[in-house]
Fold these 2 entries.
Entry 1:
Amino acid sequence: MNEHYPFINPPLPYPYNALEPYIDEKTMMLHHDRHLQTYVDNLNNTLKNYPQYQSLSLEQLLFHIDCLPKEIQDSVKNNAGGVFNHLLYFSTLNHIDQSDKLLGSILNTFGSFEEFEKQFTSAALSVFGSGYAWLVYDPYGNLTILTTKNQDTPIPLGFYPVLNLDVWEHAYYLKHYNKRADYIRDWFSLLKKNLSIS
Ligand code: MN
C-alpha cells in the first residue's frame, strides 16, 4: 500500500483524540485530513502525466529529484516531501518500532536523554519559519540531529530518517498559539511515552 503512484492518504493509525492532552483532536483532524491530503493530491496531479515516474516510491522520487524533468522538480520535492514527512511524523507520534534499540542509541550518542532533549529542542526552536527537526542516521550509522526548511527531507543527503518534529505553525497553533517551545515539550512527553521513559 502506498508504494507508488497513485499515492493515498491512509487513515490516521489511531483516533484523532489519542494524543490529548499534548496534541489536540482538532489539530490532528485538520493536519491529517486537510494538510496531508493536499500534499497527496498535489503529488498525484504532478505525476499524472509522467507515467515513467509512476512506479517510483516516495523515497526514490526524493532521492533522485535531480534526475526528474526540471518542470516537476520543485513540485515533487515539496509534495512528495510533504507526504513522506507527515507519514513519518504521524506514525511516530504514537508508536516507535524497536524503541528499546533506539533509546539505547540515543543514550550512547548523547550521553543522557536529557542531553538529547536539550539539543533536539534547541534545533527545533532554531528553525526560522516552517520546517522540521530530525533525528536521523547519517551514512556511517551515527545518530544525528538536523533541521530542514519547508517540506525538504534529509533523504537526498543520504540520511536515514528516524523521527521528525513538524514545526509548521499548523501543527500546533490551535492549542499552543505562538508558543513553539510548549509544543516541543508536549511532543517530548509523547516521545518519552513511546520510548517507555517514565
Ligand atoms: Mn504539517
Note: Helices lie at 25-47, 58-63, 70-92, 99-110, 113-126, 173-176, 180-194.
Entry 2:
Amino acid sequence: MIEPIRWNTDHLLLIDQLKLPMVEVWVEIRDLHQGAAAIKDMIVRGAPAIGVTAAYTYALAFQNKAYSKDYAAEVRSILVATRPTAVNLFWAVDEMEKVAEANQSNLYDSLLEHAKKIHSDDISMNKKIGTHALSLFPKKLKVLTHCNAGSLATGGYGTALGVIYSAFAEGLVEKVWVDETRPFLQGARLTAYELQKAGVPNTLICDNMSASLMAKGEIDLVVVGSDRIAANGDVANKIGTYALAVLCQYHKIPFYVAAPSSTIDFDMVSGDDIPIEERAKSELGVFNGKQIVHDLENIYNPGFDVSPCHLVSGIITEQQVHHFPYIKSLQSCK
Ligand code: MRU
C-alpha cells in the first residue's frame, strides 16, 4: 500500500500527488513555508493527510526557534490559510499549539514526537474504521467511491478506501467503481492507481455515469470520506458527493461516510456553517495547459458540497458505526 507521508531524520517527505500516477516523486519539506505551500498547492491533499502534514510542519517551524506567543500565532495563521474546508488541519494545529505551550524547554523534540503520534494514530484509527465497517457488508458487494479517501488522503490505509481494503481482505468486495471526480480528477489519478496497486478490482467511470449504473443494479453500496462533519451529521466532502447521496436515496442504496473523529467539528451546528473552498477557475476552463472555454471568468468552482445528515445511512468512525440522529450518537466522539 502506498505510504504518502514519511519523516526522515530532520525533514518531511511527501509523495507528490500532482505527479501521480505517472511517476512517484518524493518532495522534501524542510520548513514552515515549504509545508504550507505543499498543502496549498495540493502536493498533499485529503483531510487527514493535510492534518498530519500540518502537524509535522508545525514541528519544523520550531526546529531552530524558541517559543514565543507571536511566532506561534504566525505559524498558525500561515498553516490555517492553506485550505479552508478540511477541519483536520485546524484540529492538528490546535493539538500542536497545546504541546508547544506546555513544553517550551524541550520544544522541537516534544512537537516532533506529537506529530509522529498524530500520524500513527491516524493509521490505527483508519484500520479500526475498516473493522467496524465489516458489519455493513452482508455479502460480496459492488462498491462505488468518490474522490480519493485512501492511503494517499490520510496518514496511511485510508478512510473510505480503508473500508474497502478491510472488506476486500475478507472476500466481501466484488469490484469498486471509481468516480473520476471532476475537475481535479482525484478518482482517476489517485484512487484507480491506489486500488490497482493494492490488487482490488476496479473500474474508472465519469461522475455522470453513476446514476445509470445504479439503475442497472451495478452498485450495492457507496462509501466516501469527509473533510468536515457538522455536529448534526451533515457531511462536507468533495464536490459531487451530494449528488451521489441523493441518487442513493432514490435507488435505495446505502450511502456511508467513513472518517476519524477528528473530522467532526462540534462548533458547526449544521452543514450550513461549513466553509466551502472555492478553487481556481482554470481547473475547469483550462485542459492540458490550453484554454478550452470561451469565457474563463464565467466559471464557478466550489471544491466541496454538503450532504444533509438524513441522506447518510451511517458515519463510520474509529469508535463505531453511527446512525441518525447523529446529533446524539456523535457526542461519543468528543
Ligand atoms: O480537495 P481534496 O483532494 O483535498 O479533497 C479530498 C476529499 O474530498 C476527500 O474525500 C476527503 O478529504 C476525505 S480523505 C480521507
Note: DSSP finds eleven helices and 16 strands in the chain.
